[in-house]
Amino acid sequence: MRIISGQFKGRRITPPKKLPVRPTTDMAKEAIFNILNNLFYFDEISVLDLFAGTGSISYEFASRGTENITCVDEDFGCIKFINATADQFKMPIKTVKSDVFKFLETTKLKFDVIFVDPPYAFSLDEFSKIPELVFQNELLENDGLLVVEHAEQMDLSQLPHFSYSKNYGSSSFSFFEKVE
């Protein structure tokens, strides 16, 4: 795994093999960050990375200058790895070891970008809980964006606040926005 752009461009990060993760591919990361780059100034936003896994998405935000990044994962090994990597590169990443759904129910924080990379095996009901909790608890700032990564076979277009989706290889990203 490598950081594809920004201050730490080209740095390789090697997570332990035993982590229960499926990292976002470099091609998909590059594509999603091209979209986000046209919507946000990275040094002015706050980011929530849910089901953070190896922290790959958070490292990309940090490398581009984002100072307010929170990673949530319930696996202690993932949290430990993210903390070690963030310390190594002096990245401003905070971690929370928690069940993602419990975090979404209890947090009072708001974010400009919420990136979610749950297990691809999630059911539509499990996927639908994510935007439901984000919007019900008003976790997005005005003009904020919820980005959900999922298998291309999963169709989230019927969920409330859905805006559009993009496919990259076997991965898809669905974008959700507040409708004013």
TrEMBL record:
Its EC number is 2.1.1.171. One of its GO terms (molecular function) is 16S rRNA (guanine(966)-N(2))-methyltransferase activity. The keyword Lyase does not apply. It comes from the Bacteria. It holds the Pfam family Cons_hypoth95. PANTHER family: METHYLTRANSFERASE (PTHR43542). This is 16S rRNA (Guanine(966)-N(2))-methyltransferase RsmD.
